[in-house]
Amino acid sequence: MNAKYILIVEHDLTFGQSLSTLIEEEGYTTSHVRSAIAAMESLQLNRPDALLINANLPSMSGFAFTQWVRLEAGFRDIPIALMIPADNDIVRLKADGVGATVVLPLPFDLPELNYAISELWKGVRP
Q1: Residue 110: which CATH number?
Q2: Per its UniProt entry, which superkingdom is the organism in (predicted)?
Q3: pTM to 2 decimal places
């Protein structure tokens, strides 16, 4: 059986590489891009099983990119974990409003990351 492929969209190179390593240690395959624009290009080349997106991306925010994914017919069913900068109701509502499958407040620890990823496979938002 092939490992599920997660595309990580994280502007910080070191954090993105760390996420890749941690997720791969759990048996997934990953790739890491540093912007929403690079993620759009990557989606065209290799459709991931899930996306892990930082809400605070430069140029196009993770919120806007999540909304774009949800509006694209070929990608709208991809589960999305959106990393948000604060765990408060307003930010959670915004993440939910753009179509995040799972919300992952920053900072988080490894068990929280693993839990968020496991939640991605429980179903995709319509």
Answers
A1: 3.40.50.2300
A2: Bacteria
A3: 0.94
